[in-house]
From TrEMBL:
Residues 1-88 form the HPr domain. It is found in: Cytoplasm. GO terms for biological process: phosphoenolpyruvate-dependent sugar phosphotransferase system. Keywords: Cytoplasm, Phosphotransferase system. Signal peptide: none annotated. This is HPr family phosphocarrier protein. The keyword Cytoplasm applies. Pfam families: PTS-HPr (PF00381). It comes from the Bacteria. Belongs to the HPr family. InterPro entries: HPr, HPr-like, HPr-like_sf, PTS_HPr_His_P_site, PTS_HPr_Ser_P_site. GO terms for cellular component: cytoplasm. NCBIfam families: PTS_HPr_family (TIGR01003).
Amino acid sequence: MIERELTVSNRLGLHARATAKLVQVLSAFRSTVTLTAKGREVNAKSIMGVMLLAAGQGTTVKLRVEGEDEAQAADAAIALFDRRFDEDS
C-alpha cells in the first residue's frame, strides 16, 4: 500500500475537468485508489466521488493506492497533481 499527502495546487481545485482527467488516468490501473479530504474518503476512480470532496486550491488530500500496479498508479496520480492537472498551459 502506498499513501501520500498531496496539495491541490491548480487554481480551480478539483473541478469537473481536473476530476475527469484524474479518473481517466487512474482507470488504466487495476489498483484500488482512494482520496481522503475534509474527513471524507472516496473512490478516486469515481468522478462523482472526487467531486464530492469539493477540494479547492490549497486543500490537502491523502492518496492511498493498493494493488498489483500500485506504484505505477500512485506515480501517475502524483505526476498529475504535480503538473497542476495540465491547466497552466
